[in-house]
Amino acid sequence: MFERYFKLSEHGSTWNRELLGGVTTYLAMVYIVFVQPVVLSAAGMDFGAVLTATCIGSALACILMGFMANYPIALAPAMGHNFYFAYAVILGMGVSWQQALTAVFIAGILFFILSLTSIRHQIINAIPKSLGSAIGCGIGLLISLVGFEWGGIIVDKPGTYVGIGELGSPPVLVMLAGLMLTAIFHVRKIAGATLLGIVATAIIALSFGLVKFHGVFSAPPSLAPTFFHFDFSGFFSLDMIVVIATFLFLDVFDTLGTLIGVAPEAGLVKDGKFEIKRGALLADAGGTIAGALFGTSTITSYVESSAGIQAGARTGLAAVVTGILLLLTPFFYPLIQLIGGGVKVSETLTLYPITSPALIIIGVMMMKGARDIDWHSPAEAIPAFLTIIVMQLSVSITDGIAFGFISYSILSLFSGRFRSTSPAIHICALLLLLRYIFFV
């Protein structure tokens, strides 16, 4: 059955290779199961419900990818999207988490519709490569910044706003040890290096007495606190339109970028060409819709799938294997709660020394896109830099994108490239500028 449906021989693969590839991909990406509940619970969502929603939504998306596209690509809530969801939209703009889930749901439906048309190709071609790369880099740095703050390395300081924390305190020492171990695992190219780093940091935290062991297995947490909790109020405001457009923009580019990036390794490039299957995009969009329905942020294709591909995965069977493992993960809730739990160091400060090293390393990996920015062209480099730096200083992905688009549109006029720049860039820039003038 597997041979007939997934065409294992045609892709030069076997059942054993697909099984190994699926398990390897799971180990490389399962860190999101520990991180996602921490990020979204910071915005008021139920930790356990988010965990279950993340696992079920991701598993469904992986299985859809396996059967609809036959790609060895796994899917889960995107790092960066979750921070935009929690910190920019909910905590930054004051939007309720129910409205934020609704925005993700609508963006997922729009992505599904776009996936049925040729517009998806026009969208990807409209955004300058430098801006797309800068957005990815900016989000990566922002994730690292949160990692440094959660680890107690960076704290608020009068006058300079930020400064170095108490490096000798036990939570910070645990975080630093975990960061170094995680970095070493990556340098040694160990499969599942990020997950292994989280486990090692948890063991150190246990030995310091910062966290307590409460078992391994339990019944999965209920979905009830987040399932189908949509709120469609206020969706005709410009702010919410921008939020939906941002979710859609990030989902489309993350998906296409990941699929194109892993295609050569997966043997999906034929005669120098790679045509993204419609089923892959539909699976991605379906995952986002299902994730929002269950109670988690945007689900998209994971670049960590390359770990499984390097282990031999070539077909969608590997994605199905990863999906099955994700379905089993909520039964390990006590371990996940231990790893994702915070350490209260004062009445106003809670640190997360176990998960923060992973965030910093993820930020490192997301900086690869900086090489695709044309730093020799001021018209490309300045908007890209503004995108990255404003995102950090304002702690807002939306403001970083806004400064990038607006400056790109203006500078294209003076560099003689106004007409050759996609009208979509100028329209977005105008809308974002009007948002600052009338609504901020």
Helix-strand blueprint:
Blueprint: H1 2-6, H2 15-29, H3 31-41, H4 47-68, E1 75-77, H5 81-92, H6 97-115, H7 119-126, H8 129-150, E2 154-157, E3 161-164, H9 170-187, H10 193-208, H11 238-266, H12 278-294, E4 299-301, H13 305-310, H14 316-328, H15 333-340, E5 343-344, E6 350-351, H16 356-366, H17 378-393, H18 397-414, H19 423-438
Antiparallel strand pairs: 1-4, 2-3, 5-6
Largest beta sheet, briefly?
A: 2 strands, antiparallel
From the spread of the alpha carbons, the general shape counts as globular
| DSSP summary: helix tally | 19
Number of strands: 6
Helix/sheet category: mainly alpha
Termini separation: 58 Å
What is the alpha-carbon Rg in Å?
21 Å
Which strand order does the major sheet show? 1-4
Low-confidence stretches: none
Helicity range: 55-70%
Written description of the protein model:
- It is a single chain.
- By secondary structure, the protein is mainly alpha-helical.
- The chain has two domains: 2-128 and 212-344, no CATH class; 373-438, no CATH class.
- It has helices spanning 2-6, 15-29, 31-41, 47-68, 81-92, 97-115, 119-126, 129-150, 170-187, 193-208, 238-266, 278-294, 305-310, 316-328, 333-340, 356-366, 378-393, 397-414, 423-438; strands spanning 75-77, 154-157, 161-164, 299-301, 343-344, 350-351.
- The strands form three sheets. It has a two-stranded antiparallel ribbon. Strands 2-3 form a two-stranded antiparallel ribbon.
- A hairpin with a 5-residue loop joins strand 5 (343-344) and strand 6.
- Helix 2 (15-29) crosses helix 14 (316-328) and helix 4 packs antiparallel against helix 12 (278-294).
- The longest helix has 29 residues, at 238-266.
